[in-house]
Amino acid sequence: MNLAMTTAFDAAVIGGGVMGCTTALFLARAGMRVAVIERDALCRGASGVNAGTLTLHMTRAALVPYAIRAWKMWMNTGAWLGHGVLATAAPGLSLAFTEHEKTLLQQRAAARREYGAQIDLLDRDAALAVEPGLNPAVLQAAYCATDGFASAYLTGRAYHAALREAGVHIFEQTPATRIDRVAGMYQVSGPDDAIHIDATRLVMAGGVWLEPLLAMLDINIPVKTLVNQLIVTERMPPVMRSVLSIANGLLSMKQFANGSVLIGGGWQGIGDRERGGVETMPDNLIGNLRLAQHVIPALARARVARIWLGLESETADAMPMIGALPGLANVWVIGCVHSGYTSGPYMGKLLAQAILGEKPELPLFDPARLVVPAAAALTQSHREKTE
Ligand SMILES: Cc1cc2nc3c(=O)[nH]c(=O)nc-3n(C[C@H](O)[C@H](O)[C@H](O)COP(=O)(O)OP(=O)(O)OC[C@H]3O[C@@H](n4cnc5c(N)ncnc54)[C@H](O)[C@@H]3O)c2cc1C
Question: I need a labelling partner for 366 at 20 to 30 A (CA). Which of 125, 190, 239, 321 fits?
Fold first, then answer.
């Protein structure tokens, strides 16, 4: 199918996760003809398999102003998305069980408060009053009312409907394999030249696959792949009512309305961006479960229903890349946002503002700082091969 003959888009967004879909939505609402090109179905990557925690505790301090605005968007999807993801507000508690964790907790809370997060420190009794199921060995907790969770598996369905209503052309099961510059337009092609999509502007929103995607434009930005493990239990009677995390960052946990408990915290499994998530590591599975049960002792009665792995992207400095790509006209990138599900809707809205020629409400994150020049890239790859 050669769509170039019939269709030229104002913008082609490559990658239909929360970042790409939100950008596409706001561009289309502003009157642009927009295509989303997704090699799977919308939001089946990180945006559909994540833990759904909408939190400031786990968000990097400098991203807190973005996450606060995004949290409000998630809690009010009716106003801008038109379809929900069961976003639920719940208090967020980050916990300390050791003196070292207490110091960490206080530092993390102070850093986030500096960026506008309303986080209070609670002593043991106050923490137990918020979450009676906690292990009473808890020493201190950081409390934040701007917290909660969504059901991430609903994200694709919600965005699909919203994008269709906004007139976005959605190309699913359509991997982008080549990008050419043809007569002042960008032409995105699929395998065997089965599809060509022409657009004036390009948005690269490929999650962990941003590195090979950007390589199609001869831009080298290394993207690290984290293989995050999640565990869900069978339904059980209520054992917690807040979103729980731990000061050292190794646990995130909440109980959904149906009784199942979702346990994560960034424990790693085996996989990469070529193969996806391959398998869990038994030690990490046991470690994650032990920590969860230490925090909420009633989880001793829980039975694991399913484990899965999802791929999360990270830049060299662990900060997002959102903005215009250097040296190319009308090409933007969005991705590698820590706690990116929480911030996703607001980040996409900001990028759309920049593409539309408006001043974004908050600053973007210049990708130019991350570009590795060709010679340095060669040396780096040589070093990696010889190590
Ligand atoms: C297990 C797990 C748990 C997490 N938990 C949380 C959490 O609780 N809270 C939180 O805030 N964040 C969480 N995150 C992080 C969050 O999920 C991500 O930051 C966010 O979803 C990233 O969105 P994205 O659109 O950048 O990437 P993705 O959702 O990965 O979207 C990228 C899309 O690009 C497509 N693509 C790539 N290459 C091509 C190509 N060549 N052609 C066409 N399409 C292409 C992919 O198929 C994919 O759909 C978690 C992540 C994981 C993996």
Answer: 190
Q: How far apart are CA 46 and CA 128, in angstroms?
A: 33
For the chain, where are the alpha helices, taking DSSP H only? 18-29, 46-49, 64-75, 77-80, 99-114, 124-130, 155-165, 210-215, 282-295, 340-355, 374-386
Cα end-to-end distance, the chain, whole Å: 45
Confidence grade of residue 3 (pLDDT, cut at 50, 70, 90): very low
Does domain 92-144+224-314 sit in CATH 3.40.50.150?
no
Cα 46 to averaged position of ligand 1 atoms, centre (Å): 3
311 close to 208: Cβ distance less than 8 angstroms: yes
Residue 226 CA: nearest ligand 1 atom is 53
CA atoms within 13 A on the CB side of 370: 28
CA of 167 from ligand 1 middle (Å) equals: 23
Average per-residue pLDDT for the chain: 95
Start and end residues for every CATH 3.30.9.10 domain found in the chain: 92-144+224-314
Which of 50, 53, 60 shows the shortest CA–CA distance to 117?
60
Ligand 1 atom, smallest distance to 227 CA = 53
Cβ partners under 8 Å of residue 364, min gap 6: 322, 323, 350, 351, 354
Over residues 155-182, the pLDDT tens digits come to 999 999 999 999 999 999 999 999 999 9
Identity (one letter) of the amino acid at 220? N
pTM check: above 0.90: yes
Pocket of ligand 1 (CB under 6 A): 14-20, 37-40, 44-47, 49-53, 175-176, 205-207, 209, 213, 228, 230, 252, 264, 310-312, 335, 337, 339-342, 344
Which residues belong to CATH 3.50.50.60 in the chain?
Answer: 3-47+154-223+317-386
- CA of 87 relative to ligand 1 center, distance in Å: 18
- Tokens 């408990």 correspond to 261
Q: How far is the CA of 333 from the centre of ligand 1 (A)?
A: 14
Fold topology of 3-47+154-223+317-386: FAD/NAD(P)-binding domain (3.50.50)
Phi/psi at 11 (nearest 5 deg)?
Answer: -150, 135
